Amino acid sequence: MNRKQTRRIVEGAFMLAILGVFIVIDSYTAGMFNLFLYFLIPLPFIWYGYTYQSKDLLILTFCSIVLGLFLGLPETIFYLICGSLISIIATYGIEKKVSSGIMFLMIISMTIVSNILLYTLFAKLFGYDLITEFESMYRFVTENIRFIEITQSYEVMLKTVLPLLVVVLGIIEGYIFMSLLSIVLNRLKIPFVKKFHIVHMQLPKWYGIIACISFVVASLIMNVSMVDTFYYLCSYVRILTILSLMLQGVSFLGVYLIVKGKNIYFIFILLLLLMPKVNYLLVPFGLLDIFSEKRKNLLYNKQ
To answer: How many Å is the maximal CA-CA distance in the chain?
Structure first.
């Protein structure tokens, strides 16, 4: 056994030992540190996978999950699995040298899926009940806040707001991951995206085609589906595709304002993103950015 193999084994065992200590502390504090593990686990795991090989990272993540099964709480195990998968995805993206937009899309896809599983499939296991909480909030608003007029019924609001909330939480978590990885990994000499910003986001044409097809198919299924499970699933797909195109539109308009020297107005584009119904105006700009060469023309001062 040469020196590098010995170092690989020792470093992997050292990481597992530290992880085991955190899992035990988390178990004794009733899960106070599970989100801490969720956001920080990918950092040493990505470094390990980049320093050695992908198969070594797979072994490390498998051992960490087994360790969590023996020592951790159910929710901690879930976050441990999700954090390990994000580290595998990010390491793969680094090895393949994918663009910042694809890396961001890969990470938010994982965070959105984890949120969907957390708040739907495993909600009862982990003690989450968003439907009951939303119902209580709906009744409080309709009964006590008179100046807010809600014309839609509770069922319609639930089918609209709940998927949107889960997807938005996933996007926020993905952005936090991208920012955290960008800060830490570049200081470890790992070629990750430097200073990730929304204007760096550039989705490829194949994603635009898939997004358009997915939106149309999901809309058709939602109109004919009588099963809530299919309705919610298609609703998640629709919201994800629309939000991704909106973010691409924000990215394109941000580049335009920066090139024109009017980046101070970018705050208004971000505010536009938060305005219901009005934010759909960003979708055409996102599609224009994906299917045309307007961004390159702006960056290289072409007409």
So the answer is: 74
